[in-house]
Amino acid sequence: MVKLSIFFKINWMMLSRGKKIRKLAEIKNPKRRSAIILLETDPQVCQAALSLPLTPNGIAAIARRHKTVYVRLLATQMLENESVLTTIARHDPNDSVRRLALDKSKDPRLVQDRCKNDPSLIVRKAAVIRLTDASMLRRVILSDKSPVVRLAALEKVFDDELITKVAFDDQDTDVRALAVSRITQQKLLQQILSKDKSTTVQIAAVRNLISQDILAMFLFSPLEEPVKIEIIKRLKDQNGLYQAAIRDENETIRIHAAKAIIDPALRAKLAKSSPDLQVRLNAIEQITDQNILADIATFDKLNHIRVAALNKIREQSIIKDIACTDPDEIVCFHAVDRIARANLLYDIIMTAKLFPVRTYALEKLNDQEWLANVIFNHKSDTLQEQALTKVISPKVLEDIVLQTKLDIKLRRNALEKLKNTPKFHFLKKLVYPTEEL
Hints:
By secondary structure, this protein is an all-alpha fold. It is 72% helix and 0% strand. The radius of gyration is 43 Å and the shape is elongated. The mean pLDDT is 93.
């Protein structure tokens, strides 16, 4: 390596970045250029200089000795010499530089050495990823102090005995969980689920369980909520799910169990008899049988439940019957909101038990002929007047004026709505005595 004089070093440090880059490009001697790069502290100047011709020894010197990590990384990326890469991978103080040297090296002995001896988990993990020796992987799994490194090693092994040992004995939750996820023996999974206190590990065990008997057994054991939810996802036993939906102390578990039930009879039973309102509502959400929904909407004691069932009924005539007979205004109003046919709205107006429901249905009715039927046939003056306010058809208004059986006040109000029509004066003579004209 070329030695630089004190005078040169002082003058060099006083130059601007641009001048340094230009002078480095002008230098003909690659060894001198390498010596200057070792002196330089500006990463941008060094990066520009490293793109210029350098000797392999010069690059190696920069990679080993430069004070700036970034520059050492750039130089290491340019190296091919295994001996230099080994030195850097073992001795550089920065783990990123050591890892880069390891990644570039093709020496399997260096990989094993870094697995055992590097102080950085980043470097050890990088070495493990390249490791192929089964005994060395076993050693890493059983003795490395970092769970990150142990996880990387565990992903590469297929030794069932070793995986089982890790699943039971490793101190780290994530490592045990990964090992458990590799186990398929149902009895082992049952033991892990019984003994391991980690929710993460328990969930990993449940995800590999296919035994319905084991799943059903643990559904009623004192496990945490996330574990039971995983069990419910995999359990096909409809009676077991029904019992969980009824009996479990945790409402979230009860709801998940209710949603998992696919047996129509059990869904209906749950919707009708569960003591938990939310469970019943979720069960109703899953029901599609119109007869069951109609039964719940008609006879259930809770208006929330009746409304939930009502909202899933498609048959308009059933909805109309509920609007006419339900004792709760809220339920009836929901039913009226679901009605679109004018003849059914008319039926509600004429027969609903609750007067506010009749009024509410009349507010929705806009069909002129059916409004006329309300006026001609309903006994309530209030509803007749309300219906008249919605009539805009001249023909219907004329029929009302001509209907002598109707109250005279109602006929006169209909006449007022015909004030600007050609027949107004003729019709006026029919509803006003001569002395009032």
